[in-house]
Amino acid sequence: MNRISALKTIVTIAFIISVITVFFGIPFTLILAVAQDRIPQSISNISANHLRGTGAVLYLLLTLGSTVFVALALRTFKDSLTLFEKRIFFDNRVITQLQKSGKAFVGAAVLTLLSEIASVCFAPAEPGTSGDFSYGPALLLGGLGLLFLVLGDVFEMARKLKEENDLTV
To answer: Which domain holds residue 99?
Structure first.
């Protein structure tokens, strides 16, 4: 049970970080959408030219949406870990929480992929370079989502087998 407690702590920390990211990301996106001319051209020697226009707002909104889905997935996974700590394994609540986590991670993967596409489509490319497209985070989130969906299905099958076993005894 120590491992479950440690995993629950890590998931809680990741959840808090994602909520803080959304909390500070929403005002920044609103400022970018309303007052683009007030943002300096460079912040700490980083060019902010790619953070201009409708594409930047779309990119940030999609990224924030992805972060919200990740926070939802982490929260539901934390709830299922709480049930595991109480030694509740093959319950409908556990199965539902795992499936919700999986769906939220898949939603985050889709939004992450769309934000990467928006970044490539709307970012001004420098001469002689191609757009910087990365599908790694979307692939990772999609894989996590599918893992949780399969885990939910496995727990569902185990619950049915347990019920059948209880009836035969």
So the answer is: 2-168
